[in-house]
C-alpha cells in the first residue's frame, strides 16, 4: 500500500511510500490519503497526525503519466486531499526530508506545523510546467511570505526558502523524532480546546481562499490540455529543453 498508516501514542503517521516514483501521488494514492485523513479524524485513539515521505523524499508532486493522460481526474483527486486536510479538526504535522515539489508543497501549506531537514528542498515550478497555482496557493503564499517574495519564488520558479511555511529546520535524522515529540505534546493537551483553537487559527488563515480557489480554477482551466502544458511535460519526460516559441 503506497500510503501506510500506523498509530502509536495517540499519533497517526501517514507515510507516503512510492520511492521509485519519488513519492509522487497518483489517483489511487490521493484517494487513500484522503480516506486515511478522514478516518484518523474520527478515531478517538488519534489526537494528532504526522505526514511523512519514505526514503528521504517527501513528495515530488503528482504522477506525470496521469497528469498527461488524466489531468482532470488526478487534479480532482488531489483537491479532495486538500479539502480533507482543511476539514480535519486534529493538528496535522509534516515531517519533511528531501524534496517537496509542486503538490508536495501544496500539502505543506495546508498542514498546521512543518518540520524539515537541513537538506530539504521546496519548489513550486508551476509556470515551468505550463501551469498556474491551485489549492489557494496564490493567496496563501502571499499571506505567508508577502507579495514580493511570493512573486519572486513563484514567477521565477525559484527554490522556496523563508516562505513562512516551515516551523523548524533540523538535522535530517532528527526530523521525525522531533515531529513526533511535538505530536506527543499536542496529544497530551485538552483535545476539545486544542481542536477548537486550531479551528479558529485555520479559519483566519484560510479566509478568502474560497474566492481565490475559484479564480485559480478558472485560470487553470484556460491552460489545462493546452500546448504549453503538453510541451512542458513532454520535455520533462524526454529530458530536453522545452520550446514555447
Low-confidence stretches: none
% residues in beta strands: 15-25%
The total count of strands amounts to 8
State the separation between the terminal residues, measured CA to CA: 42 Å
Biggest beta-sheet profile: 6 strands, mixed
Q: What Rg, in angstroms, do the CA atoms define?
A: 17 Å
Total helical segments: 10
Relative helix content: 40-55%
How are strands sequenced across the largest beta sheet?
Answer: 1-2-3-4-6-8
> What's the shape?
globular
Give, in order, the helices and strands. Answer: EEHEHHEEHEEHHEHHHH
Query: What is the average of the pLDDT values?
Result: 93
The helix/strand class is: alpha/beta
Descriptive overview:
The termini are far apart. α1 runs parallel beside α3 and α5 packs across α6 (147-155). 41% of the residues are buried. This protein is an alpha/beta fold and 245 residues long. The strands form 2 sheets. Strands 1-2-3-4-6-8 form a 6-stranded mixed β-sheet, with helices on both faces. A two-stranded parallel ribbon has the order 5-7. 48% of the residues lie in helices and 15% in strands. The protein is globular and about 60 Å long. The model has no long low-confidence stretch (mean pLDDT 93). The chain has helices at 27-42, 64-69, 71-87, 103-109, 137-145, 147-155, 175-187, 191-206, 209-221, 227-238, and strands spanning 3-8, 11-16, 48-53, 92-96, 99-101, 113-117, 121-123, 168-170.
Amino acid at each position: 500500500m503506497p500510503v501506510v498508516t500506523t498509530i502509536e501514542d495517540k499519533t497517526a503517521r501517514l507515510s507516503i511510500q512510492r520511492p521509485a516514483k519519488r513519492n509522487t501521488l497518483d489517483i489511487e494514492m490521493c484517494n487513500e490519503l484522503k480516506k486515511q485523513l478522514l478516518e484518523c479524524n474520527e478515531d478517538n485513539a488519534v489526537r494528532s497526525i504526522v505526514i511523512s515521505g519514505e526514503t528521504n523524499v517527501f513528495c515530488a508532486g503528482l504522477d506525470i503519466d496521469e497528469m498527461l493522460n488524466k489531468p482532470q481526474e488526478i487534479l480532482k483527486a488531489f483537491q479532495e486531499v486538500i479539502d480533507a486536510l482543511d476539514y480535519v479538526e486534529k493538528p496535522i504535522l509534516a515531517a519533511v526530508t528531501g524534496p517537496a515539489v509542486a503538490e508536495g508543497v501544496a500539502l505543506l501549506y495546508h498542514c498546521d506545523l512543518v518540520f524539515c531537514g537541513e537538506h530539504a528542498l521546496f519548489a513550486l515550478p508551476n509556470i515551468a510546467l505550463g501551469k498556474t497555482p491551485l489549492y489557494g496557493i496564490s493567496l496563501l503564499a502571499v499571506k505567508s511570505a508577502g507579495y514580493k517574495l511570493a512573486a519572486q519564488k513563484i514567477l521565477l520558479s525559484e527554490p522556496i526558502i523563508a516562505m513562512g511555511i516551515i516551523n523548524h529546520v533540523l538535522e535530517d535524522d532528527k526530523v521525525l523524532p522531533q515531529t513526533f515529540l511535538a505530536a506527543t505534546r499536542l496529544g497530551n493537551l485538552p483535545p476539545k480546546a486544542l481542536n477548537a483553537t486550531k479551528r479558529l487559527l485555520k479559519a483566519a488563515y484560510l479566509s478568502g481562499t474560497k474566492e481565490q480557489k475559484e479564480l485559480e480554477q478558472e485560470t487553470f482551466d484556460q491552460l489545462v490540455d493546452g500546448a504549453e502544458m503538453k510541451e512542458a511535460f513532454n520535455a520533462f519526460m524526454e529530458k530536453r529543453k522545452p520550446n514555447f516559441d
